[in-house]
């Protein structure tokens, strides 16, 4: 049976709040590192440092940009036609 493996994950959960010592200056959200807080604070400041080089869309987080760029792989951006007859 695999019951023992499932129970093992329980004490990992206990670490919680104590490690989240850096607080957002705009809301009550907490993170483990100053870098993570700054990244979160962009949702308040509207800063969008991550830019798609394919269509110039901008994003607050790298993960969002990566997720967006996957759509280009499936469906390339429509470029103006440059036929040279
Ligand atoms: Zn916040
Ligand atoms: Zn794009």
Molecular structure report:
The chain is of the alpha+beta class and 85 residues long. It is 36% helix and 9% strand. It is built from three helices and four strands; from the N terminus they run αββαββα. The strands form two sheets. Strands 1-2 form a two-stranded antiparallel ribbon. A two-stranded antiparallel ribbon has the order 3-4. A hairpin with a 6-residue loop joins β3 and β4. The longest helix has 13 residues. It starts with a helix and ends in an 11-residue tail after the last helix. The mean pLDDT is 82. Bound molecules: zinc ion (ZN) (2 copies). One zinc ion binds next to α2.
Task: Produce the secondary structure layout.
Layout: H1 3-8, E1 22-23, E2 30-31, H2 34-45, E3 50-51, E4 58-59, H3 62-74
Antiparallel strand pairs: 1-2, 3-4
Bound molecules: zinc ion (ZN) (2 copies).
One zinc ion binds at residues 52, 54-55, 57, 68, 72.
InterPro entries: Snail/Krueppel_Znf, Znf_C2H2_sf, Znf_C2H2_type
Keywords: Metal-binding, Nucleus, Repeat, Transcription, Transcription regulation, Zinc, Zinc-finger
GO molecular function, one term: DNA-binding transcription factor activity, RNA polymerase II-specific
Keywords:
alpha+beta; two-stranded antiparallel ribbon; 3 helices; binds zinc ion
Q: Radius of gyration, rounded?
A: 21 Å
- How many β-strands, per DSSP? 4
Strand content: 5-15%
Tell me the major beta sheet.
2 strands, antiparallel
Assembly state here? single chain
Which H/E pattern describes the elements?
HEEHEEH
Write out the distinct hetero groups bound to the structure. zinc ion
Protein name: C2H2-type domain-containing protein
Family: Belongs to the krueppel C2H2-type zinc-finger protein family.
GO molecular function: DNA-binding transcription factor activity, RNA polymerase II-specific; RNA polymerase II cis-regulatory region sequence-specific DNA binding; zinc ion binding
Subcellular location: Nucleus
């Amino acid at each position: 049976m695999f019951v023992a493996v499932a129970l093992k994950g329980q004490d990992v959960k206990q670490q919680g709040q104590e490690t989240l010592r850096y607080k957002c200056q705009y809301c009550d959200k907490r993170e483990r590192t100053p870098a993570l807080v700054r990244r979160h604070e962009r949702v308040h400041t509207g800063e969008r440092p991550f830019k798609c080089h394919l269509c110039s869309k901008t994003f607050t987080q790298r993960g969002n940009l990566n997720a967006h760029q996957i759509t280009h792989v499936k469906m390339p951006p429509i470029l103006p036609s440059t036929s040279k007859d």
